[in-house]
Amino acid sequence: MSNPGQSLQQMRTAAPLVHNITNFVAMNPMANVLLAIGASPAMVHAREEVSDFAGLAQALTVNIGTADDAWGAAMIDAAEVMNDAGRPWVLDPVGVGATPFRQQLSRRLIALRPTVIRGNASEILALAGRPSAARGVDGGDGVDAAMDAAQGLARETGGVVAASGAVDYVTDGADGYCVANGHPLMARVTAMGCSLNGVIAAFCVDQPPLEATVAALASYGLAGETAATTAQGPGSFQPAFLDALHDQTPDALDAGARISAT
């Protein structure tokens, strides 16, 4: 991975419409993140129209953070549309280990073979049926502990799995990369991980999923580093982060990305 900037440029040229079935907390910040980086967001979750809308989108994200039975059914409907059309979709199994409902819904979604699964290390462990130190929707495990689980999930789904943390780990079950970009302030702002799902989905449009996911993580983390240079705390970090995403150039991403093969 020597030129993530090319992936950024290709995504911006495509300016993909990303359909997001996400949680209530994430809708507004996620939409702003996607607009800032150069994609087009839509937040549509009603089952009555979700399949029709998914047919219009270039990519989909599914986030179970505030799901219920109706939303769960809508997620499955939308994912099936994406699969039929050969378009990418990203699953975020938020707090999957917290309740049986989340576990059951996540297993149904995994059976549809998402293009990318992205979660914190505890969510990846729980999704793989392994013990984790999760506390509700908060992770308590290091990324190193989830690498084997990520590889197994990737092989099971035939897709890409990304475990987010201080250093992210991304694998397709055979090859793997670590992405060291990011800043601690990112963990102090809600919906940062949820918003990342949309960026990954946008990068995956007409690009190889493994390389696109790695590039998206590097871009997102580098924007966090840039924003932190001027932010006074979480409140000022948010607008600075949007500006950093918007202003990031492909050359700056190539120069600042810290990606290593594992």
**How large is the count of helical segments?**
11
| Count of all domains | 1
Strand content bin: 5-15%
Q: Which structural category fits the helices and strands?
A: alpha/beta
CATH hierarchy, class: Alpha Beta
Beginning-to-end CA distance, first to last residue? 12 Å
> What is the string of SSEs from the N terminus onward?
HEHEHEHEHEHHEEEHHHHE
The general outline is globular
The fourth-level CATH homologous superfamily is Ribokinase
How would you classify the quaternary structure? single chain
Indicate the mean pLDDT: 95
Q: Trace the largest sheet across and list its strands.
A: 2-1-3-4-5-6-7-8-9
Give the biggest sheet.
9 strands, mixed
Low-pLDDT sequence parts: none
Task: Tell how many strands the DSSP assignment holds.
Answer: 9
CATH architecture identity: 3-Layer(aba) Sandwich
Radius of gyration: 16 Å
Give descriptors for this structure.
11 helices; nine-stranded mixed sheet; UDP-N-acetylmuramoyl-L-alanine:D-glutamate ligase
Walkthrough of the structure:
- With 262 residues, the protein is α/β, with parallel strands linked by helices.
- It has one domain (4-179, 190-217): UDP-N-acetylmuramoyl-L-alanine:D-glutamate ligase (3-Layer(aba) Sandwich), CATH 3.40.1190.
- It is built from 11 helices and 9 strands.
- A 9-stranded mixed β-sheet has the order 2-1-3-4-5-6-7-8-9, with helices on both faces.
- A hairpin with a 4-residue loop joins strand 7 and strand 8 (176-179).
